[in-house]
Amino acid sequence: MAPPYFIRNLVPRREKRTEGRPLLEALGSLTWVQWGHFWSGWLAWTCDAIDFFSVSLSVSRLQTQFHKSNPSDITTAITLTLLFRSVGAVIFGIISDRYGRKWPLVVNLILIAVLELGAGFVQTFKQFLALRSLFGITMGGIWGLAASTALENLPVELRGLASGVLQQGYAVGYLLAAVINLTLVPETSSTWRSLFWCAAGLSAFSAFVRVLLPESEVFIRAKEAQRARGETTTNKTRVFLHETGQMLKRHWLLCIYAVLLMTGFNFLSHGSQDLYPTYLKDAKLFSDHNATVATIIGNCGAIAGGAIAGWVSQYIGRRLTIIIFVLLTGAFIPLWILPTSFSALAAGAFCIQFGVQGAWGVIPIQLAEISPPAFRATFPGVAYQLGNMVSSASAQIEATGANNLHTTIRNSAGQLTVVSDYATVQGILIGVVAAFILVVTIVGPENYGSHFEKHKTAFEEGGGSDELEDDMREVGSRPTSVQVDEKRSTSEPV
Question: The pTM is what?
């Protein structure tokens, strides 16, 4: 008996693999505008991470500032930010798919800079929570817009590697926030506020960089074609709304799958990152300095894992790469939670983030390739942020669990000390989530090597029902990549 479809299709068929130009040749073919689009998307995503992790790195200082004795009170701000991100993903994703990538991203980044700046001036905890909730809305738009800006103008041969590098902009942002927290924050009288102000300045700089670059080439061509046909803005909006409905009617099951996948991935990343400095300080009795240094080391592992996984996925496919790196994550959990020395725990942080963010490095291109092609900003962004919303309580789950579960360790003086058992709580959470991701990934679709840039945009008739050359059907019943390219060559270009 033949193995199930989802097992025998873990490695894409030969004709679905990207067998184009060598990597260096493809890199050499890029124009300055293509480089600019990629790095502007990467920078926006990096700034998003700096802004988000400003709270995670400042939990103890925020407790002191707002007179809160329990870390779970402060993590409420993290939960609210994650809850409201799906709202921003819908708003900015729809605007981007309708009007283009450039100005929606610019406005998004400016709003983030304003709210992050304001968070550095708040005086009460209620003010802080309100600003972080609004911040969640603006923050929710960044990922979908940044990923579409960075990837859709690149040759298909580079998208796997580019996906890994793009996604690890998040780890770079966390690393930069940790460096600022390690060096600048202790030296300023404003302490944690200086971290928020620096994050605001970097977001404003990212908006300025995007202003200097042109609109995405995909949208330029689509708008020129629409003008040539004499279609008005009102008509394009009507078409856009109709095609959005068609997309939801046709791809509702894919939408559910993507949300389930991103729920698992967001639990994996937030569960291993958001309270990691607090875990080291409260459960392992590290100093603020050593906890921050270990966080930096962990993010170095994340950057390496994301880039390597993205590159590997170009050869063995997206799902198989995710599975390999999630298995690595599970294997490294003991090293992440059992040791007590700085060197061993830092090594565990590097290895666990190598696996977690290695799997994450494939996600931007995986979601872009399985998305309805006309909705490459809305679909991935909303799926990502709905997953964030479901996983928004991960930090509070860990904080509450650790407060109710205690263990005894020896401090630096050799005395026995009772501490909150973050290690056990985080180990169980990450293990369960890793198993969930494995199942969802194995049974899910893959559209490896998709030329999604050749499809219609969301304001063109037929965009909502535009077909994907997908791997969701049985082998033999789907067209080969050659057949798809031949079919496209006879259709009207975008």
Answer: 0.75
